[in-house]
Design brief:
homodimer, 203 residues, mainly alpha, Arc Repressor Mutant, subunit A, Tetracycline Repressor, domain 2, 2 domains, disordered N terminus, DNA-binding
Chain lengths: 203, 203
DNA sequence: TGGAATATTAAACAGTGTTTAATTAATTTT
DNA sequence: AAAATTAATTAAACACTGTTTAATATTCCA
């Protein structure tokens, strides 16, 4: 039946409209400072309607959260052509940081904010699927590096976490404006300079 | 005159009481979820009174912020006896992480949350004094390390930022519950294991 | 066309940070 | 000591917030 299909589509459309408006506002003025009424105003509907499409504000957040991970993992796809694990690792770091610096609010949503993660993995103890997939790419690369003789005496899981921590630290301190302590002449490029320093350390 | 002094002291006392109540609640249920009425309830005063001692909620946050930095810098004092810069750097990392893991909510307040930093350095462009002091200790240690021949071809500012980023990343990903991606058998000790991996990389 | 289902809304509820004017208490001045 | 002044404290209000409810408008199918 094409009719029910179209109905479904139209329903999906409004859902999409809500999501788009929410995204704009969330990334513009932050999640906390965006109210349901703000979203409703923007799409020219009453606030109540949103609750027909999303359980609550957190569910909207969660939908955008997933969207962000999809975008990031798409950007990581180009890595498959890089054979050398160390080179791939470095390229990975660059992509990660580029994504974070180009979409700071989305990065914030994905990795810094706290609110709604319970939503993400608490349900059915499925352990944060999106994030797990992304981290697995890093883990595999590290494992291959170890197998190829890089980083002797290291162990994959803690090394992978440490690598992730470094790139996350570089961008999150910057996003959350803790870089005021950095020498002003170095501040502008401190994130990529820090990444280079890390690469130098990796060898 | 002792009388005005005592008055001053009594005034300070209520301020201290507010601060203590706010701290308890902030660290118990988070800053966002603690309302001014909650604080007022706890000290058995009306909500309005708080505004006689603090401009707004942010100012309370800021006061606790400073307190956290004082505590952390006190813990760093023992470092002065360590001569070798690399050893001192490692000890620094351990203290930093220990502080963060023992006071996750305070750490969150100091380095992860975003709200009130404008308060901290925007006033008089004095550039985030507390944080600057703490970072300077790291910077000095790194500079000494470079002077002593450690980390050849590295440069102090970006290296210092990278080191800070790594330890911050290690703890902040953990505090903000992004460690669900880590192998469950390794999860409990992943922060200190990650730190060890970093130390191994430093040499 | 009438009845059922759905979409949408207006209104209410309990909460928020903050400001205001009023009230109580303390201090100083007469 | 009494009155006037100042400070401390409060109750009430304002304009918000997320969410729920019952009522209304719209659409669909028989």
């Amino acid at each position: 039946m094409g009719i029910t299909d179209r109905k479904e589509r139209e329903k999906e459309e409004l859902k999409e409209t809500i999501l788009k408006a929410a995204k704009t506002l969330f990334l513009e003025k932050g999640v906390e400072k965006t109210s349901m009424r703000n979203i409703a105003d923007r799409i020219e509907y009453s606030p109540g309607i949103i609750y027909h499409y999303f359980k609550d504000k957190n569910e909207i957040f969660h939908a955008l959260h997933q969207e962000g991970f999809k975008t990031l993992s798409e950007k990581m796809e180009v890595l498959s052509v890089i054979q050398d694990p160390l080179e791939r690792l470095k390229a990975m770091g660059k992509i990660y940081i580029k994504f974070a610096m180009e979409n700071p609010d989305m990065y914030d949503l994905m990795f810094i904010k706290e609110a709604p993660l319970c939503h993400v993995f608490d349900s059915e103890k499925e352990e944060w699927i999106e994030g797990g997939g992304a981290f697995n790419g890093l883990r595999m690369t590290i494992k291959q590096a170890l197998a190829d003789g890089y980083f002797p005496a290291h162990e994959s899981e803690s090394l992978a976490y440490m690598v992730w921590s470094t790139v996350h630290g570089l961008v999150s301190l910057n996003i959350r404006k803790r870089c005021e302590v950095i020498d002003i002449t170095r501040r502008e490029n401190i994130v990529s300079d820090g990444l280079d320093a890390f690469f130098k350390l990796l060898g």
